[in-house]
């Protein structure tokens, strides 16, 4: 019992120290990067507002959501707080400005997060189609993976192609140097990451797992995650020479050895430091590597920050 208490005290102290480290960094460095004050006139159509004829895919900083389809996961007030990473529907996330979705499925095509489940993937597809039908120039990266510990849904690649059809941008390394307009009227880069099924091949309507990478670490320590994100990002090639998307997640994860297991208060330790992270990317010389930036509980300011960096690249400031 004494050992357990001592361990809990040490864990609380470590979290407190790391929260203070980020707070001190924020106070000393602030939030200052090119075009940081920019706000898109309409977040729902922010890509249409940045000149799709001139903006190349590799210039975009894509605002994304982590565990995107968890707004109705589990049982409200009972299991939901332990797995919910978003409180908006897929449609409303897209309207808010998210352009990268992270969806996890199990064998019966239900969306899941660990052992908890929610609605069928059909709900996600319906929301994506609804949003695209209401806009003209917005491109979405739709990542769907089989959740860890689960089996691949049978014939899921065929299902995705049947459902998304002509909206799909086929796997092609040349798209990174193309403009948004050159991809239209196709609208979705769909990355399918099965656990055992064959990976999509070049020219396929779907993209394989090698085209969307990250270096996720399992921690609830905010400064540790913040610095790990910067380290791994700095090790990537610049976006101008990459033939894959690279994601950084501004999130931390509840740990079993800590009494705070609900997602929102834990991820809140890092959530407010998205602009600080971007500022540090510029000051540490890795802003030219930032591409997909994802978060829990996406808000307008997060989207604005990503769009601001995109605009600064278009204008040659970054």
From TrEMBL:
GO terms for molecular function: phosphoric diester hydrolase activity. GO terms for biological process: lipid metabolic process. Residues 51-193 form the Phosphatidylinositol-specific phospholipase C X domain. It comes from the Eukaryota. Transmembrane segments: none annotated. This is Phosphatidylinositol-specific phospholipase C X domain-containing protein. It comes from Rubus argutus.
